[in-house]
Amino acid sequence: MPTPDERGRASEAPAGILVKLKWFVGVRLLLASALLGSAVILDLHERLPFRTPPLYGLLGLTFALSLVYALSLRSQWRLYWQGLVQIALDLALVSLLVHLTGGLDSVFPFMYIFVVFASASVLERRGGLVVGILSGLLYAFLVLAEWTQVVRPAEFAGGLAPLRSTGYAVYQVLIHAVAFLAVAILSGHLAHRLRQAGQELERRGLDLRNLQTLHRAIVANISSGLMTLDLAGRVVSFNEAAERITGYPFAALRDHSWRETPFVACPALDEFFANPNAPLANPVLEITVDRQDGPPIPVGVSCSPLRGADGEAAGLVAIFQDLTERKRVEDQLRRADRLAALGQLAAHIAHEVRNPLAAISGAVEVLREDLSLEGPNRELIEIVLGEAHRLKLITGQFLDFAKPQSLLFRPCAVRPLLEETLRLLDRSGERHPRTAWEVTERVPGTSVLADADQLRQVVWNLCLNAIQAMPDGGRLTVAIEPERSDRPSEPQPTHGHPDESASVEWVVIAFRDTGRGISPEGLGRLFDPFFTTRPSGTGLGLVIARKILESMGGTIEVESQIDIGSTFRIRLRRAKAAAAVS
User: Fold this and answer.
1) I need a surface site. Which of 50, 456, 479, 482 has the fewest CB within 10 A?
2) Using CA atoms, how far apart are residues 347 and 361, in angstroms rounded to an integer?
3) What does each C-alpha distance from 476 to 510, 556, 565 come to in angstroms?
4) Closest listed residue to residue 50, CA positions, set 200, 215, 180, 161
5) Quick one: pLDDT at residue 347?
6) Is the distance from CB of 98 to CB of 109 less than 8 angstroms?
7) How far apart are CA 552 and CA 555, in angstroms?
8) 273 vs 284: CA distance, rounded Å
């Protein structure tokens, strides 16, 4: 009988036993049907050597039991014990078949072999060996019972069994018993090896599935884009990061040539497919990729050939990253270096120029009051005083740019501050008579966390630039729009800003004018020191505004179109305090 370990293994794998028992039922029905069909055909043409009614009854019982087995298997209840019952009843049915078809002269003792095979499959190696021994014993007891007339032999046309010698009967019993035992050993060994092979295959399959899952997870979650190509240059894979970077879905590129992808301008791909087995001269390079849903972006690409076990090229893998953010950070770092150098220069200039300039300006004022100059001389004096005033303004902006600001963060009401600044601009004489302005606020009473004086300077610079961009009049619209972001801001305050959580509430203040606009070349240099589009400008107003905003943890962005206008957006943290000062 099976050991407890084997029964435990069988009980731990009900799905495997269920499949085996279903096959067991199917093979039984197949054998019974073949036996029934052959018996009917032979019975119609000639008389069989044994009585057929008991045989038909036995086959009918076999079909009935198979139906009961099939119905019981649907419940999947105690499958191991169902297998034992089926094997025991099959041994009885085969013994009855051998008895009804001549006993010692029967040609059906081989049917025990199928029961032995089934038991080795269901009950493992020891179960098959036990059933093999039982089969030999049952056949021996049946022959002995009929030989000794304990059981009356069935009517058999040949009637040779009583004439057989005792040695012949013993020989038949031994031959069949040895055959059953050999089949049991062989089938048990094969079943054991098959079970081991199945377990190993299952383990390998599980490892393969885990490896495939890990591979898909790695490819899907890496931040770099990944594209693989076959030797024909067709796209084989394109991960989610690649779709996000290029804007192209994998479905649109699958099985397409690389020349139909955004990487058509990549020289490394051209080089590889011209000679796949040659090493790449420049496997790492930067190119510009045309996104499907946006402007071109800079991309860093690393190409590497895929080689088979024989070392021959099988394809190419390209790993790439969007360099837009890196380029932006590099520009910021270069700008910061320039600003640092210019800050030192501005401090020296302001130091050396401001005092002599004040003396010159004062002396010229005295001369203008003491001397009654008319005509060209009067104009020259006014020119000197005007230029001195302009130099004083430039040195003042140098000082604002160079010296660190001491910031006092408090909640500031945005709308009153904007309206006050615009009213001051109205009285400054800078506004054209046909220039109108408007302040809109989506959420009334919006406040930001900032230094009010510094914020006024930022607003003054931006509004002044907008008005000066509309020399023939126009419209300036200032919109206050709250915004929520789940990521922290990139620039962080440097002077005592309170801690904030990763989820930040922002206020966006957009300054939209209908002026001349800024060219694409000008947009790239807009925040460079001393860059200006106005002859009288110093090129420091926007630089100072950006510096102030960054010191308060804010940002500034600009969009512009020629002859349509410009939009400057500043973003500051929204104040949580209920009270605000302007």
Assistant:
1) 482
2) 21
3) 10, 18, 10
4) 161
5) 65
6) yes
7) 9
8) 16
- What CATH fold (topology level) applies to the domain 410-573? Heat Shock Protein 90 (3.30.565)
How many other C-beta atoms lie within 10 A of the C-beta of residue 158? 10
Backbone angles phi, psi at 567, to 5 degrees: -130, 120
Question: Who wins on pLDDT, 54 or 182?
Answer: 182
Paired with 569 in beta bridges are 510, 557
Token pair of 288 as six digits: 């510009």
C-alpha closest to that of 491 among 548, 447, 449, 453: 548
The residue-averaged pLDDT of 357-361 equals: 73
Place of tokens 């002599």: 356
Q: What is the pLDDT of residues 407-430, one digit of tens each?
A: 678 899 999 999 988 888 887 667
pLDDT tens string 487-543: 444 444 444 444 444 456 899 999 999 988 888 888 878 877 777 766 666 667 788
Q: Residue 510's pLDDT is what?
A: 94
Structure token digits, residue 367: 């001369």
Residue pair 497/552 in contact by the 8 Å Cβ criterion: yes
Any idea where the domains of the chain sit in the sequence?
4-202, 223-322, 327-402, 410-573
Q: Which of 125-139, 141-155, 548-562 has the lowest mean pLDDT?
A: 141-155
> 223-322 has which fold?
Beta-Lactamase (3.30.450)
The interaxial angle of helices 111-147 and 166-221, nearest 10 deg, is 160
Average pLDDT over residues 218-228: 82
**CA 301/CA 292 separation, integer angstroms:** 18
CATH topology classification for 327-402: Helix Hairpins (1.10.287)
pLDDT of amino acid 33: 77
HSE, side-chain direction, 13 A CA sphere, residue 214:
6
| Lowest-confidence segment of 17-26, 117-126, 427-436, 528-537 by average pLDDT | 528-537
Give the phi and the psi of residue 574 in degrees, each rounded to 5. -80, 140
Contact 528, 539 (CB under 8 A): yes
Q: How many CB atoms lie within 10 A of CB 218?
A: 11
Q: Are 486 and 503 in contact (CB under 8 A)?
A: yes
